[in-house]
Specification:
Layout (H helix, E strand, L loop, with lengths): L1 E7 L13 E6 L2 E7 L3 H8 L8 E3 L10 H9 L8 E5 L1 H16 L8 E5 L3 E5 L3 E7 L8 E7 L7 H7 L5 H7 L4 E2 L5 E2 L1 H4 L8 E4 L10 H4 L4 E5 L7 H6 L5 H10 L5 E4 L7 H11 L3 E3 L5 E5 L2 E4 L8 H11 L1
Parallel strand pairs: 3-4, 4-5, 5-6, 12-13, 13-14, 14-15
Antiparallel strand pairs: 1-2, 1-16, 2-3, 7-8, 8-9, 9-12, 10-11, 16-17
Helix pairs in contact: 2-3, 9-10
């Protein structure tokens, strides 16, 4: 299961109800901040999710509405001892711009109290954790080095404790070996194979995040069979020429990608202030019925074949962040 908290869902400039692009993707103890538009740290505070474990920041591209919030966020982190390192992943052009922002404006020659690592993105795996991977892939937008991110759980075979108990497999290294696919020999000489104690292969959840994009024909393969897809829908079809001019998508184009790639659920973001939410939603649903327009502070859980908006999610770090604020004020 992956989860996503939308912190900003507006395009180019904030509106009364929508902040600039930012979202947090969660998987168990892991957190990834994707993009960091102006005002992101305030959105983090207002959401209640807190700053803990927001060490990894993934940037889709270099445009200011996706990176300006890094100045305030890093300024806060440098005065809060709970963050022991920061890693910023982005394309070459974005990293150069962010480096200037951090060292030329925020720090101005001062040494940060924690390591700040600028890590260039190339197409391929960014993270290969025990149970999931994160893969970066190129996206066509205005300028070079724009990327999307695919989060994929690794397939697994559940260990069937009842069968292991019945076969006399003791707790300990024997069970660990069987989980890894290795046969074991019991003290009585009985050989137990993985097939005897492992269930059917369970395919993991696939979740794809795409920021700004000017075309979709090169994205179908990466989005193929995703359980959830987040992508921009800055315009609607009656202004498709403007969308093309500025390298953005219409709601219909985003929905067509979801349909053609066999995506299960579509979440639309990066909305222009010129439209009402229902204009975007209705256009997308004419092509792909499982389309939802995300709002600021929406929290979704993505599992196999299903995306659920959680109304009852309560983040539990308000006390921690309140203490952090007292420390740095």
């Amino acid at each position: 299961m992956f989860e996503i908290l939308f912190l900003g869902t507006s395009a180019s400039a904030p509106s009364v109800h929508r902040g600039l692009s930012a979202q947090i993707v969660l998987h168990n103890e892991h957190r990834f901040l994707i993009d960091c538009g102006e005002g992101t740290q305030r959105q983090i505070l207002q959401s209640g999710i807190g700053f803990k474990r927001l060490n990894r920041i993934l940037i889709t591209h270099a445009h200011l509405d996706h990176i300006l919030g890094l100045a305030g966020l890093i300024s806060t982190f440098t005065r809060w001892e709970a963050i022991d390192f920061i890693e910023i992943y982005a394309g070459k052009n974005a990293l150069e711009r962010i480096h200037d922002l951090v060292y030329g404006i925020v720090l101005r020659g001062a040494k940060p109290p924690m390591p700040i690592r600028f890590i260039p993105i190339q197409a391929g795996k960014l993270f290969d954790e025990k149970d999931f991977t994160v893969t970066a892939f190129p996206v066509q937008h205005r300028g070079a080095d724009c990327f999307g991110f695919a989060f994929e759980e690794k397939s697994r075979r559940p260990f069937l404790n009842e069968k292991a108990d019945a076969l006399g497999v003791p707790f300990g290294p024997e069970r660990s070996k069987l989980v890894k696919g290795e046969a074991v020999t019991l003290t009585n000489g009985t050989v137990i194979t993985p097939e005897q104690v492992l269930g059917e292969i369970q395919i993991g959840t696939k979740f794809v995040f795409i920021g700004d994009a000017g075309r979709t024909n090169d994205l179908v393969d990466m989005c193929r069979d995703a359980d959830g897809l987040v992508i921009e829908s800055t315009y609607i079809e009656e202004e498709a020429d403007i969308a093309k001019q500025f390298g953005h998508l219409t709601a219909k184009q985003a929905a067509t990608l979801a349909r053609d790639a066999g995506v299960k659920n579509l979440l639309l973001t990066h909305l222009s202030r010129r439209y009402r939410e229902r204009n975007v939603r209705d256009e997308a649903r004419t092509v792909f019925p499982n389309s939802t327009v995300a709002r600021d502070f929406d929290f979704f859980q993505i599992t196999r074949g299903k995306v659920e908006r959680r109304q009852d999610k309560v983040f539990e770090e308000e006390n921690d962040q309140a203490e952090a604020i007292r420390q740095i004020e």
